[in-house]
Amino acid sequence: MLRAPLLKGRALLASARYKGRRSLGRPAADLAGAARRSWVVCPGGEVETIPILVAEGHLGRIRDGIGGESAGEVVEAIGGARHPLRPATAYELDEAVLLDASVYSGAYKHDLWRQYPRLDWLLGGPVAELGEAALATSFSGSKWFGHWLVDELPMQVLASRLAPPVGHVRPGYAHEPGYRSAFGIPAPPSYRAFLARKLIVVHELAHNADKVARHLAMREAIAPLPDGHDRIFLRRGSAWGQRRRLVNEDEIARRLEPEGFVPLDPTAMTAEEILRRCKGASMLVSLEGSHTWPGYFFMKEGGQHVTIHPPDRVSVQTCGVAPYFGLFGALFVGEDRPGGASLEISADPEELARFIDRVRLGAERDPDAPRRFLDAVRATGSPSTVSP
Predict the structure, then answer these.
(1) Beta carbons within 10 angstroms of residue 52's beta carbon
(2) Quick check: helix, strand or coil at residue 264?
(3) CA gap 13, 50 in Å, rounded
(4) Is 248:345 a contact under the CB 8 Å cutoff?
(5) How many Å apart are CA 198 and CA 92, to the nearest integer?
(6) Are strands 261-264 and 283-287 parallel, antiparallel or unpaired?
(7) Using one digit for the tens of pLDDT, what is the confidence trace for 125-159?
(8) Predicted pLDDT at 338
(9) pLDDT-based confidence at 7, cuts 50/70/90?
(10) How many CB atoms neighbour CB 28 within 10 A?
């Protein structure tokens, strides 16, 4: 077993070799090209989706999506009748090296999210020489809480089937320990640097039958918890990602209270408290954002996940993934605040209350739609393939 200084030196050398190749104009390898072998863990496919419920006239309010999507692309996605399912593929790298927030294997570099100053790893932190391992952390899961919860946690479950899971050191999210405990998914050993004789990297975009099974297993893990409030108005609070604000949030909370909604601020609660207050909710209403994503797990089957979006940041993903958890997704586009920033919006409380009634009635007309959708997703899959 190499001592820490020697191991760090070898990791630094692997990084320098990669950067040297790139400085000479040599192309980088992609994951498929760098892998010694690869195999499909779960196939993809296509399914008919549950339509996103949209407030009347609100498609015309959309100006932009997220991730570079245009208004036209957002509207097209909202109206899409079918969803593509993406395969989960495992790639096996030889002699892989982790250095801080990047994995190197020959001409390939796999970036993870860096939240520490560059070269901070030199000051200390865990290092290891590994035989076989599976990478269990990701760029998006390290940067955004919602992607950590919905994508990285289930990916860690899959990675642990393939080889001992490992990750890179990063600051944890405030609610991370509580949700890990609730779902029974322990944190993988994390390192500032490692050398792995064989490293498996899972590539999994969007959803497939196996990922949905992992999501449903997470829902099942918290199913024995007692139910909390039936209707939740979730405030965004002050500690979540990119700043956006519902300026008349208090007014909306007052209007919705007679409708049975309980206003809650998740930033002022622990994960355990959130589950205690929200488990089994039939409807969640909130400004869109990562703070709403735990609802995919704690809401009851057939629940309605209603999100309010700035006209310049309409996330089809937030609504479109709800059916993969057995829920209905609904979208309400707010209005600009006069003289305010583009992500400071308001929502008409009466219009929102009417839309909420419409969403409830729509779900009641076909309460079995989420179950049929999940059955269709399951039908596209096959038993997970741990190795080829």
Answers:
(1) 19
(2) strand
(3) 51
(4) no
(5) 7
(6) unpaired
(7) 889 999 999 999 999 999 999 999 999 999 999 99
(8) 66
(9) confident
(10) 13
3-state secondary structure of 202: strand
The predicted structure's pLDDT at residue 68: 82
Phi, psi at 43, each rounded to 5° = -75, 165
Q: DSSP code of 73?
A: H
Q: Give me the amino acid identity at 359.
A: V
- Inter-residue contact 253 to 270 (CB < 8 Å): no
User: Which residues are bridge partners to 84 per DSSP?
Assistant: 46
Question: Looking at the predicted structure, is the pLDDT value of residue 382 above 80?
Answer: no
pTM of the complete model beyond 0.85: yes
Contact 210, 88 (CB under 8 A): yes
Q: Which two tokens stand for residue 113?
A: 């999210």
Its sign, for the CA torsion 120, 124, 130, 133, is negative
Domains of the chain, each with CATH number or no CATH: 4-34+87-205 (no CATH), 46-85+226-375 (3.40.50.2300)
Cα dihedral across residues 13, 15, 18, 24: positive or negative:
negative
Placement of tokens 């294997």 in the chain:
105
- Report the run of H or E that residue 254 belongs to, with start and end: helix 249-256
Q: What are the tokens at 265? A: 């601020």
Q: What is the reported pLDDT for 44?
A: 95
Per-residue tokens: 78: 């909202």
Question: pLDDT tens digit string along 319-335?
Answer: 999 999 999 999 999 99
Q: How many other C-beta atoms can be found within 10 angstroms of the C-beta atom of residue 54?
A: 21
Indicate the helix (H) or strand (E) that contains 147.
helix 145-147
